[in-house]
């Protein structure tokens, strides 16, 4: 839910006309109170719920319990310094227990009203951590009493401790967002391409997103990709959340895929082409432990069929035999990410440190096994105005296992790693990639990029060195839409120049 909407449309609905200092049972006590006081000190506070108002089953939280408790103790301390007679509270959540706790700490009386809770029967319902409201606290000698509660705006709803039911807030603020982009482009590796990209945010009112790409090209690429995310990546960035789910289906057929050989010594002149047809399905569950620490666990199924080899193809005589047939993995993976980026789509500041491990095992659905470890480092910083961003990435991976077919060796080359070098230019069991970019605005929604890519592969992690890395300068153009960006890059390689069209930053 959106607090701007709540404040602007008075979704809290209620004027707490609940203070009545009328006839006291003991007029003498009341009279003495008034005589002693020359004024009535009133304090109004927005005590902040700590929620991001995003989600259906549970709202995202910005703080852990310990941080909320520390903030509460500081609040009590400052209120005692001010020494008010009456306190008005907004955004107390959960309002009953929060107002009672504060009243005990100050030795005040309290009255309160639930104003925002979703669908609840007692403490049970959705969103599970939302039962927000307003409250009034007053010194006991003022004899605080409830007078009346009025709802000033909004459609029908019921609000109370026992039962709460309202729908209009969610429907009004959770408006679906739909974006589409026709695709007409040319790419070094795939030729002339055409298709469409669709992005649909929140059609089910769960802050979820559907991301669809349908694409074909004259060199035979067929790319169909669907990503379902709940909540959407951008909506959960920098949030505490109990769980998120991502499902990806990716089919990407290359009619003319490249093979140069294995290792850094492979020669560009030895290039041969074949058809590569991969299908990948992944399901990932994530948890935001705090705004900067995220854990993920996932399942992956990937099958890659290689065929249509040249008559004198070296791959036919390169072991293992799976190089020239279908290779399939079923794997589980887990990672832990420290992430301070200010945005998932277009970060301008922040740091990412991530480690991942994957285990692929033989099953009736798979014929390849290996273990993979990987580590990422991303860094983003605003250097100057107009907003020019320095973006850096270092990515290291290693495979453990024997007889791993080329379908699952680690590739370098192409639009997401070493721009300017052809797709899969270098293959190995260990790979490292470095990318550096300066991202700057141009005009309207357009931005520019100048960058530098470097990469290398090895047969094992023990062989890692810093000698003779492949290096390519790059320039690029970006078109920024609301929920995604379009990327066009030119990479200048040693043996070729690459033109790449895709979506999202390289990193």
Question: Can you tell me the CATH superfamily of the largest domain?
Answer: membrane protein fhac: a member of the omp85/tpsb transporter family
Number of helices: 6
What is the overall pLDDT average? 88
What radius of gyration results from the CA coordinates?
A: 30 Å
CATH topology term of the largest domain: Porin
* Oligomeric state: single chain
- Please count the beta strands (DSSP E, at least 2 residues each): 27
What percentage of amino acids are in beta strands? over 45%
Q: Tell me the overall shape.
A: elongated
Give the N-to-C terminal Cα separation: 29 Å
Trace the largest sheet across and list its strands.
Answer: 10-11-12-13-14-15-16-17-18-19-20-23-24-25-26-27
- Under the CATH scheme, which class of the largest domain? Mainly Beta
Binned, the helix content reads: 10-25%
Main pleated sheet = 16 strands, antiparallel
pLDDT below 50 for ≥5 consecutive residues: which ranges?
1-35, 170-174
Key descriptive features of the protein:
507 residues; Porin; mainly beta; single chain; 16-stranded antiparallel beta sheet; 11% helix
How would you summarize this macromolecular structure in one to three sentences?
This protein is mainly beta and 507 residues long. The protein has six helices and 27 strands. The model is unreliable at 1-35 and 170-174 (pLDDT under 50).
Task: Describe the model.
With 507 residues, this protein is mainly beta. The relative contact order is 0.09. The chain is elongated, with a radius of gyration of 30 Å. The longest helix has 18 residues. The chain contains six helices and 27 strands. The protein is 11% helix and 50% strand. The strands form five sheets. Strands 10-11-12-13-14-15-16-17-18-19-20-23-24-25-26-27 form a 16-stranded antiparallel beta sheet, with no helix packed on it. The protein folds into two domains: 171 residues, no CATH class; 327 residues, membrane protein fhac: a member of the omp85/tpsb transporter family (Porin, Beta Barrel).
């Amino acid at each position: 839910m959106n607090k701007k909407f709540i404040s602007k449309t008075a979704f809290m609905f209620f004027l707490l006309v609940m203070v009545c200092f009328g006839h006291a049972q003991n007029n003498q006590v009341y009279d003495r109170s008034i005589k002693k006081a020359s004024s009535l000190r009133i304090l109004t506070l927005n005590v902040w719920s700590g929620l991001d108002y995003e989600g259906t089953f549970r709202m995202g939280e910005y703080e852990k319990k310990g941080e909320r408790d520390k903030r509460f103790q500081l609040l009590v301390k400052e209120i005692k310094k001010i020494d008010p007679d009456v306190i008005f509270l907004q955004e107390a959540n959960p309002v009953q227990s929060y107002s009672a706790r504060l009243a005990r700490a100050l030795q005040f009386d309290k009255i309160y009203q639930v104003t925002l809770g979703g669908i609840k029967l007692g403490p049970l319902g959705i969103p599970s951590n939302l039962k927000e409201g307003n409250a009034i606290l007053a010194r006991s000698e003022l004899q605080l009493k409830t007078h009346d509660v009025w709802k000033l705006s909004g459609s029908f709803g019921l609000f109370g401790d026992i039962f709460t039911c309202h729908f209009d807030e969610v429907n009004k603020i959770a408006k679906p967002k739909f974006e589409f982009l026709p695709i007409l482009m040319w790419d070094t590796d795939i030729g002339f391409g055409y298709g469409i990209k669709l992005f649909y945010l929140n059609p089910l009112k769960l802050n979820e997103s559907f991301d669809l790409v349908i694409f074909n090209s004259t060199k035979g690429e067929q790319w169909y990709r669907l990503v379902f995310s709940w909540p959407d990546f951008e909506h959960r960035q920098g949030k505490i959340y109990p769980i998120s789910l991502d499902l990806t289906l990716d089919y990407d057929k290359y009619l003319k895929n490249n093979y140069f050989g294995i290792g850094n010594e492979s020669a560009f002149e030895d290039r041969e082409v074949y058809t590569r047809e991969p299908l990948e399905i992944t399901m990932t569950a994530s948890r935001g432990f705090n705004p900067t620490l995220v854990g993920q666990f996932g399942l992956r199924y990937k099958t890659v069929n290689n065929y249509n080899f040249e008559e004198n193809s070296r791959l036919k005589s390169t072991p293992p035999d799976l190089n020239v047939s279908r290779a399939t993995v079923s794997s589980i993976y887990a990672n832990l990410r420290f992430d301070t980026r200010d945005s998932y789509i277009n970060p301008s500041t922040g740091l990412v440190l991530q480690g991942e491990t994957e285990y692929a095992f033989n099953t009736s659905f798979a014929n390849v096994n290996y273990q993979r470890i990987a580590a990422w480092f991303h860094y983003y910083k605003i250097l100057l105005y107009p907003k020019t961003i320095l973006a850096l990435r270092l990515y290291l991976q290693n495979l453990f296992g024997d007889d791993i077919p080329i379908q699952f060796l680690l590739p370098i080359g192409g639009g997401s790693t070493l721009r300017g070098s052809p797709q899969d230019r270098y293959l190995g069991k260990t790979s490292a990639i470095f990318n550096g970019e300066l991202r700057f605005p141009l005009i309207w929604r357009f931005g520019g990029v100048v960058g530098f890519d470097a990469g290398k592969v090895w047969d094992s992690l023990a062989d890692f060195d810093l000698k003779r890395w492949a290096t390519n300068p790059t320039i690029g153009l970006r078109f920024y839409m609301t929920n995604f960006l379009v990327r066009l890059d030119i990479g200048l390689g040693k043996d070729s120049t690459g033109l790449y069209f895709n979506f999202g930053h390289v990193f």
